[in-house]
């Protein structure tokens, strides 16, 4: 018998069944992902047949929150926390995002200053400006990282963070930097984009300062295509970071609840990591120690086999044991020699690159950061530059860090791949010796 009694009053439900709904992401998408591995045609056909036969396939849940299955992003955060040794770890879609998140979690904004090195990928300082603060650019030294004495000179009443960057896989002078930061009560954000798995005096990079920021983009020590992680021991900063990286508040235990006492509610953005990147990152983090030790061994083999020349020096490593080993840096006696040696090494097949050539634009060196040097702004408010009186803005010039430029112009980088065999390392070292014996012949040191 038909009844109009409402379900809410105990009547029958008018809609008691919907669907079935196939999953939004199913077999086709899985095959596209598999295609990224470029399996042979035969393997692909075999996998496709297997997948096509499985009718019970459940589509993935690629959103990290509200996941009915264990989240890969959460597992990657746990693995990273264990690797780095901090209490908290938050995944994000890039290191650029984690840097902005770090500055915002620290409350940095208009009128504040953040100290960054003259040599780093531009993202370190672009994110300061994107957070409405002013990047204060300081010299590096022969560690290729921030010079502690340059930091001390740059500190003002506006300084709200110091951002050492562990360039090319190896640590900045973290003991001296932390001493300065602690003396002045300034937080340290370690830009560890290029040095995941490295350490300084037995402390993992990214766990020494107030916050650590990591990149997993395609070019880094461990990779997930795109991706970043933020590490910290500070619960309040972690909570504020979560809020900045997910303004939709999916991270919150009580999603739409009012602010809690730890100032966790403000307007943020969306930097969440997806489960696809989370899964790749998790597998990579599990391999991190092996990858680093293989880099390290290959680098040592090459470095030990290079002959001695008075005109040749190596990058100073504040902790050689903690180096990730992704890169070997040679300093030539002058920029002209470096300019000649580099193409000669490349012609021999050595994976070598330069850092700074006054004729080649590269955003790893401050004097090509036109957007900063020329006070560029995205909006009519002229932020971040309008945040301080005009006569108190930093006087940026192309030659403001001459020590950095002269060091970088003399540097040659040799990329170390962790798959290099012993024979590969021997061949690379022999090629380096072959070239140096021509260009640095007069400075050869004969070792008995
Ligand atoms: C030192 C440094 N910081 C930050 C970044 C930005 O990383 P991502 O590409 O993950 O945003 C990079 C990337 O090259 C980097 O080298």
Descriptive account of the structure:
The chain has 448 residues and is an alpha/beta fold. The protein has three domains: 23-58, no CATH class; 72-284, Aspartate Aminotransferase, domain 2 (3-Layer(aba) Sandwich); 286-362 and 404-443, Aspartate Aminotransferase, domain 1. It is 35% helix and 11% strand. It is built from 13 helices and 13 strands. The protein has helices spanning 27-35, 41-53, 72-84, 95-105, 123-130, 148-154, 174-184, 235-245, 275-305, 335-348, 370-373, 402-410, 422-439, and strands at residues 88-92, 113-117, 134-138, 159-162, 189-191, 199-200, 203-204, 211-215, 228-232, 313-314, 327-331, 352-354, 411-415. The protein has a four-stranded mixed β-sheet with strand order 1-9-8-5, with helices on both faces. A hairpin with a 2-residue loop joins strand 6 and strand 7 (203-204). The longest helix has 31 residues, at 275-305. The chain binds pyridoxal-5'-phosphate (PLP).
List the helices and strands and how they pair.
Layout: H1 27-35, H2 41-53, H3 72-84, E1 88-92, H4 95-105, E2 113-117, H5 123-130, E3 134-138, H6 148-154, E4 159-162, H7 174-184, E5 189-191, E6 199-200, E7 203-204, E8 211-215, E9 228-232, H8 235-245, H9 275-305, E10 313-314, E11 327-331, H10 335-348, E12 352-354, H11 370-373, H12 402-410, E13 411-415, H13 422-439
Parallel strand pairs: 2-3, 2-4, 5-8
Antiparallel strand pairs: 1-9, 6-7, 8-9, 10-11, 11-13, 12-13
The structure holds pyridoxal-5'-phosphate.
Pyridoxal-5'-phosphate (PLP) is lined by residues 94-96, 120-121, 123-124, 165, 191, 193-194, 215, 217, 228.
